[in-house]
Amino acid sequence: MIEIKNVKKVYKTGNVEFEALHGVSFKVEDGEFVAIMGPSGSGKSTLMHIIGALDTPTSGQYFLDGKDVSKLTDEELADIRRQKIGFVFQSFNLLPRTTVLRNVMLPLIYAGIPHEQRRPLAEKALLAAGFDETHFEHKSNELSGGQIQRVAIARALVNDPVLILADEPTGNLDTKTGDIVLGTFQRLNKEHGRTIILITHEPDVAEYADRIVFIRDGDIVSDSKTHKKKIVHPQK
Amino acid sequence: MTIQDIYEETYTALSANKVRSSLTMLGIVIGISSVIAMISIGQGAQGSIQSSIQSLGSNLIMVTPGAQRTPGVAVSTGRGTAQSLTMDDANAIASSVSGVLSVASEVSGRQQVTARGTNTNTTVLGTNASYSTVRNVNTADGSFITDAQSSSLARVAVLGPTTASDLFGSSTEPVGQTITIKGMQFDVIGVLQSKGGSGFGNRDDMVIIPIADAQKFLTGNQYVTTIDIAAVSSDVMTQVQADVTSLLLDRHKISDPTLADFSTINQSDIVSAASSVVNTFTILLGSVAGISLLVGGIGIMNMMLTTVTERTKEIGLRKAIGAKKKDISTQFLAEAVTLTFLGGLIGILLGAGVAYAFSYFGIIQTQISIYPILLAFGVSAGIGIIFGYYPAKRAASLNPIEALRYE
Description:
The complex is a heterodimer.
Chain A: E1 2-13, E2 16-28, E3 33-37, H1 44-51, E4 59-64, E5 67-68, H2 74-84, E6 85-88, H3 100-111, H4 115-128, H5 145-157, E7 163-167, H6 175-192, E8 195-200, H7 203-206, E9 211-216, E10 219-225
Parallel strand pairs in A: 3-8, 3-9, 6-7, 7-8
Antiparallel strand pairs in A: 1-2, 1-4, 4-5, 9-10
Helix pairs in contact in A: 3-4, 3-5, 4-5, 5-6
Chain B: H1 3-15, H2 18-54, E1 60-65, E2 69-70, E3 73-76, H3 87-96, E4 100-115, E5 118-127, H4 131-134, E6 139-142, H5 147-151, E7 156-159, H6 161-168, E8 178-181, E9 184-192, E10 206-210, H7 211-219, E11 226-231, H8 237-251, E12 262-266, H9 267-310, H10 312-320, H11 325-360, H12 370-396, H13 400-405
Parallel strand pairs in B: 5-10, 7-9
Antiparallel strand pairs in B: 1-11, 1-12, 2-3, 4-5, 4-8, 4-11, 6-9, 7-10, 8-9
Helix pairs in contact in B: 1-11, 2-9, 2-11, 2-12, 9-11, 9-12, 11-12
């Protein structure tokens, strides 16, 4: 479970202070698929960094899986990210000229998983992300955009995290491939019970989630069940 | 991260950019190989100089006359010109100084030497039988001058190999022939073994005759130009040198050692003087090579800094998925150290190869010893750590949010 309580974030540039979040509070239950939506400059990236344990709030509390992570040091945050969070980025961020399997195994290296256990875990995650078995040994620069994002999703899954945090995962993809990726998230949520938080500025994309948290100018302006959820049907 | 993980990550990262990695390594390869080659050449040169000095005779002390002085007037005609040493001095040294193995006297000068239609200008050296022991010379053919021949006025000569071939060519056997020096005939009784060397002080180009002949017919006086003393061992050389000096001062009735009319040279002095010259050159060459090693190290740092900038996004990703500062810095440091280590290894092989080639083609005899190899290895690993540390630290301290945003 994720609980954010009255989180504020202030950035200082010289003498100028800028409050990106004015005391935001919300909860995400285990197994939920939530979209955090807002235009650029709304504070959603700041919120994403805090939820993703990449940054700490200036004030307020953040409980991830029952643990307060709002006052941790950089090195402790790294531990939290390694154990509890799987990231999917807009620009994929795969290691260039490296095989699909090695890319997916990367988080396992830092988690200290023994060598011989890594490959089966990576294969399982790739299959769960809907990645084609025949491409496991391909290099990352030999893949299409949709395949790359599935590798990135598998990498986020491989450590069995509490939360999958996807930051504009379809931003660099065409609508059709974007659909496939969003379908993958829906399936992971429904069939594997994964908790997923999707950050996006596009209402079209947010509508694939069960719930939409709308943020503007550092405040949550609405938080409701998706009115008309879009569903991607598995293709034959 | 385990050692195996670090190795695999390093291998992947370095092989992803093979051209750049090998060019970076080249700096270290050149640095290390030149250090190894230069030191090997220097040590080889030192070894060959020492052995050629040793071949002049072992545990040798040479006594030469001092400068000729005119009483009351400070005009010096230079060292070795005075006529102050005699056969009696040599005999006194042989009989009363302890630790002396053998003493030989020399009288030498350049003369025109003729033999049946050929002639040459060479050093004619008058000496006695002990010369062969003192100066380590042996005959290749025939025999050396005997004591009886050197004290009587026997007209016999021993030729150096160069002189022998100058006078008789390769077809005639020199032993048994006769040569003429200053109108007097000498029977050739032996030819010396070759000692090598050329130019001034070539010990292969000379004619040896009995000292009595040289004194009577060539110089016309009883003085000698050099007294060679062989000590029984290298340990007593200093003692023998001091005893010889005090004996000769006493015999020449000189009370102030600074006014001595002779000088003594110890062979180990010559060896150490020559060695120190070679040492200086070795240090000079080594430091030039060391500078190229330093430049190679800076090349590594430059490449690693570029890599850190280029891979900012990758570092951001690694941090996002839970890599700690230590993981990142270890990885980048491992890359730098691997580059220098491999470069060092190749450099050692290349440097040893160059040194070996120098020996093989007879340019100079080189000695490859373990010390410069260990030094080079240590230095290259050290350079990797020193020059890899800063880029690694910079990579580790990147903020993951900014690193991920980096374009």
